[in-house]
Every structure is written in C-alpha cells, then in structure tokens.
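Figure 6 in text form: structure in, sequence out.
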C-alpha cells in the first residue's frame, strides 16, 4: 500500500505514513510522550526521542544509506531468523534477512495513555523462502511514547519445531563512548568476538577503550547505560531474551564501514553511539514448537542522572 492508502486504513491522530529517504515508506509518530520514525522496510525503528529528552535515545547516522534492500546504519535493525553469520550458508546475509525486506502494517492504535502502537508483519518472498524454508510468521509491535516498547513475535505455523536466533540490534545515543559505561552484566559469561570467540566473565561495568563485540549469554537482566556527558541513564529492560550483545566498532572498523559520519563534534559518529542488543543467540537460540509462538519484549527509557 502507498502512504495515502496506509493513512486511510491505519492513520491515527499522532501517526502519519509518508514517503521519505530512499523512496521508502515511513510511519511518523509524534505524540505527547515521544517522537519516532519507523521504516516499513525491515520494520526498522529509525529514531526515537522521548519528549523529556533534548537528544534522541535511538541513534541513526547522519550518513545512513536508505534504499530498497539496504540496511540502515543506526536505529533498531531486526536480526531474524538468525543472528550473526548463517550456520552453514556463508552467502546468506549476516543477521538474517528481516532488516532488508518489506514488512506490512497490520494494525495501529492510540492507547489509553496516549502512546501510539503499530503492528508489522514480515512479508515472505522468494529470497526468504530460499533462505529459511520454515512456515514461520514474524511480527513486530512498536509502542511509542515516553518509553519505547518493541515486541518481536515468532509464530511457528509449521508441523515441526523450528530454531531461531534473533536480536534487536539497537543503536543508542550517548555523549561519548570513552566515558559511557553499561551496567547489569557483572558476573555474566560472554563470547568475546574481538578475541577470537574466547569465553570470559564480566567483572564490573562494561567500559570502552577499544572495539567491543561481546555476546553475553544466559542473562535476563536489565542493562543501564550510564552517560555522564549527556547526564542521563538509558534503561534497557527485557523479557523473552537470554542474550545481550554489547558492540562498538571503534575507529578503524567504523572508518571501513564508511557510513558512521563525523558526528556532532567531528570526532566520528561512532563515538556517539553504543549498541546494547537484546536477543537470543549462541547458547540461547530459541526452539519454537509447532503451533507455538515466542515473544521477545524490550522496553527502552531514559532518565536524568
């Protein structure tokens, strides 16, 4: 459906569908609690700012590339139905196909508290059938206001159990990666991808002095980004998720990627974001029985320090 049709069917007082960057369609939300933009390609939450905050909480690069089949640098990419490289087929896209295929709007609502809710369903195509031949339905529900809640729902419509990996690869806006820390993972085991996949145990808060790419396993804990530069805390609370990924590319890798931009201080856009991703990966891939569903829910909020 084009934006006019979407507005006719799903428009809300604080929800408007528009054609935007890259010729893609976006759901634009602006209510009393917050502002967000969601691209229908990938059901990708591009940005979110609660009205209590001067700076966005969900970060997107000023040099992000938009267009059919392109992944957007920043926002909340949906990694599904696998996380990281495919287990057997190296030509399949990393983190699955969900973030670069079209999703369909299936419902919208203005909730009693004034939040705006939009439901999306992944639209299968020849590519998805070839890469994942299971009869599974993926849905994403975004609830936008003073907090951002994201529900990723996998329904197994097949006659056999299916195994999935998943994550919300969320980029979060911080003042500077050198001063921010992440708490909530003390004592957790993690796979250190920067150190050849070594298994290690977190001691204290996660601090950043170089590239970090870690999959923390067997943890359902809330994480908090402590940001002294922006004088705020970002909380990431989750259910249905037993893995947390923490990632920063640092300078060399960010320059190779080429779409992080200079940032607000020209120190590099990578310095102004950190990914704290809720998911189910490595040891925690999810088995969904035939006829059953699995829901992963993440709630993001921000508060003054």
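Output sequence:
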């Amino acid at each position: 459906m084009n934006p006019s049709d979407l507005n006719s069917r799903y428009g809300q007082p604080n929800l408007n569908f528009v054609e935007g960057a890259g010729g893609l369609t976006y759901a634009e939300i602006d209510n009393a609690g917050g502002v967000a933009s969601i691209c229908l390609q990938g059901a990708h939450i591009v940005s979110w700012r609660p009205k209590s905050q001067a700076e966005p909480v969900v970060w997107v690069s000023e040099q992000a590339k938009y267009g059919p089949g392109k992944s957007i640098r920043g926002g909340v990419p949906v990694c599904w139905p696998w996380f990281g490289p495919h287990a057997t087929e190296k030509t399949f896209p990393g983190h699955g196909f969900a973030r670069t295929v079209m999703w369909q709007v299936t419902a919208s609502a203005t909730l009693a508290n004034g939040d705006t809710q939009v439901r999306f369903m992944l639209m299968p195509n020849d590519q998805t059938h070839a890469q994942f031949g299971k009869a599974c339905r993926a849905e994403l529900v975004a609830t936008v206001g003073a907090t951002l809640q994201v529900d990723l729902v996998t329904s197994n419509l097949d006659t056999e159990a299916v195994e999935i990996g998943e994550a919300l690869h969320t980029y979060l806006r911080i003042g500077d990666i050198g001063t921010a820390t992440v708490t909530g993972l003390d004592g957790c085991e993690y796979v250190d991808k920067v150190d050849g996949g070594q298994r290690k145990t977190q001691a204290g808060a996660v601090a950043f002095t170089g590239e970090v790419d870690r999959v923390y396993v067997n943890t359902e804990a809330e994480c908090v980004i402590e940001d002294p530069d922006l004088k705020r805390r970002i909380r990431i609370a989750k259910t249905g998720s037993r893995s947390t990924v923490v990632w920063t590319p640092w300078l060399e890798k960010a320059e190779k990627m080429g779409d992080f931009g200079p940032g607000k201080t020209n120190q590099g856009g990578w310095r102004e974001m950190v990914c704290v991703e809720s998911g189910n990966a490595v040891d925690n891939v999810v088995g969904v029985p035939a006829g059953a569903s699995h829901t992963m829910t993440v709630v993001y909020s921000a508060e003054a320090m």
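Caption detail: Residues 3-304 form a domain with the Beta-galactosidase; Chain A, domain 5 fold (CATH 2.70.98.10).
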